[in-house]
Write a structure and sequence with these properties.
Layout: H1 6-29, E1 35-37, E2 41-44, E3 47-50, H2 52-62, H3 67-83, H4 86-91, H5 93-108, H6 122-140, H7 151-165, H8 171-185, H9 189-193, H10 197-207, E4 213-216, H11 229-233, H12 256-261, E5 268-271
Antiparallel strand pairs: 1-2, 2-3, 4-5
């Protein structure tokens, strides 16, 4: 019997988190408060977790930083520094919806050249929007406006609103419409070009050259372009073989390319440390 691969465990975690944020507000409604909050601010017993972007905005606007906010943001940023943007690929519920839309689009176009490498301009667009949003917040607003663009936060709020106020948020329409648009374009547009939540996580991971990343050993590669199974496996339309050739801002360490390569020579693998093509150091 073949052991479950990395995608099985990743999907298990993704669906588990998505289900948890449906169940938690129901439990809170029943006055069971071991777990409370949403993707902006969450508490598991005594442990606080916080969205670093929300903490940044609150700190800049109010010149105030509580211990809970500091610890909560530090946990999220520490995870990104060590493991890359795994929040996006293992935890974010919108990331799950977006991936499922891409999987459906690829099945619909089965047999064709389904994935064209995407240009590396997505982060520049995202960073520009992030800067404009942050500047607008500091000048014109008293509440963290960029968090109104937090799709994981809206996902969790939908169920909070329903169980606490019997109110169905219009965010439901947004969370269904965006994957439908991405299905039509066959591109994960939000995650690549808009999502403000990922900007700080990406910046922090870039500060640590030793963070977990996908490595490529050309000596082991037995695939021929343009039908590389690793490239076809990437829902973000990246070429995993070229991640070391430029600043890696898009890869979220989902592991789909590593799983696809596992049956084709194992030229791709996870490893800690600076990118090194054709290297033979230990990895996972």
């Amino acid at each position: 019997m073949r052991r479950p691969g990395i995608k099985f465990w990743r999907r298990l975690v993704q669906f588990g988190v998505a289900t948890a944020f449906v169940v938690i507000p129901l439990l809170n409604h029943l006055h069971i408060n071991v777990l409370t909050g949403n993707f902006l601010a969450f508490r598991a017993g005594p442990l606080p977790l916080a969205d670093p972007l929300a903490v940044l905005q609150i700190t800049l606007k109010n010149f105030y930083l509580s211990a809970d906010l500091l610890v909560g943001a530090a946990i999220a940023l520490g995870l990104a520094a060590a493991m890359g943007t795994v929040f996006c690929s293992w935890i974010c519920p919108f990331g799950l919806l977006s991936e499922l839309a891409q999987d459906a689009a690829r099945r619909r176009t089965s047999g064709q050249d389904r994935v064209a490498p995407q240009r590396r301009t997505g982060f520049a667009v995202k960073l520009t929007l992030f800067g404009l949003g942050l500047a607008g917040f500091l000048v014109f607003s008293t509440t963290p406006v960029l968090n109104q663009l937090s799709l994981p936060a809206w996902y969790s709020r939908i169920f909070q609103f329903y169980f606490e106020q019997r109110h169905i948020s219009l965010a439901v329409v947004l969370l269904l419409a965006l994957p439908a648009v991405e299905f039509g374009f066959r591109r994960r547009l939000w995650c690549r070009c808009i999502c403000p939540q990922s900007v700080l996580l990406i910046c922090v991971k870039l500060l640590n050259p030793a963070q977990l990343k996908v490595r490529f050993d050309a000596h082991k590669c037995i695939c021929a372009k343009p039908r590389d199974p690793c490239r076809q496996a990437c829902s973000l339309s990246l070429d995993p073989k070229t991640l070391a050739e430029a600043v890696d801002v898009a890869c979220n360490n989902c592991g789909d390319c590593v799983a696809a390569c596992k049956r084709r020579g194992r030229a791709l693998r996870f490893g800690f440390g600076p990118h090194a093509r054709d290297s033979g150091d230990a990895g996972v």
